[in-house]
Write a structure and sequence with these properties.
Blueprint (H helix, E strand, L loop, with lengths): L6 H18 L3 E6 L2 H4 L1 H16 L3 E6 L2 H10 L6 E2 L2 E2 L3 H25 L4 E5 L6 E5 L8 E6 L2 H8 L3 E5 L1 E3 L5 E3 L2 H12 L3 E6 L17 E3 H10 L6 H13 L4 E6 L5 H7 L6 E4 L5
Parallel strand pairs: 1-2, 1-11, 2-8, 5-8, 11-13, 12-14
Antiparallel strand pairs: 3-4, 6-7, 9-10, 13-14
Amino acid sequence: MDLHFSNAQRAEVLTQALPYIRRYNGEIVVVKYGGNAMINEQLKQQVMEDIVLLHLIGIKIVLVHGGGPEINDLMDKLGKKPEFVDGLRVTDRETVDIVQMVLAGKVNKTLVNLLEMKGGKAMGISGMDGCLIEATCKDPRLGYVGKITNINIAPVNDLLEKGYIPVISTIGCDKEGNAYNINGDTAAAYIAGALQAERLIMMTDIAGILRDKDDPTTLIPDITIAEAKQLYEEGVISGGMIPKVDCCIEAIKSGVKNVIIMDGRIPHSILMEILTDEGAGTMVMGERHE
């Protein structure tokens, strides 16, 4: 597709974005980033550009990231076989060390570096810094997989006040100094709730919530919490989408205005969601307002 915009068309696009720029200026938007949008290098560059653009027009962006594929890669190299109980990864002491190295180290610093190179001002922290994510053992059979007990949001607010984009890796800790692997969607929901964010954007590998999971044209543009419960019962929200929607509901109940589940594989989906009428993906909200 050959897109040659005249200067007049570019100006038109910018003026159409103006009401959204005005609306979101100074507001907090949390972006949960992972999956394919993170593996594909070109997409990763675009996502970072989008985040810097939103940051530069005055939106307070908080980036919460995962890194599952990178963890698997390093485990492979170290000859460590993943184990699962009821579909959840068992995290022994050695595995949690690997998770900490990959998430709080390589992935986090790579994203910070990219944001800086694109003209942003970013600072990477893990959930262990400032005891941001306090956790306890979720299930003894899973080892060091954490359940969040408390969020100490002050370090994130400090960074936002100083004009940084906080980049957060989802490692938690307890009072005894143990590190825990925390589900990225859950961490993003709790962090967005603690920040009373205007919006939480969950970047995934699917278009959003689909009435027919094999047909992207059946995208449901928006649902309330009550409608989501109905869709669970009908089996429309099933499999891996259940914990994602649970996280959306958790975020809204703790004070986030609305949550978007969107396809992170579509270039500039974040900009489409925040700066256009169309939006992208499925919006989950508390209730409908006429």
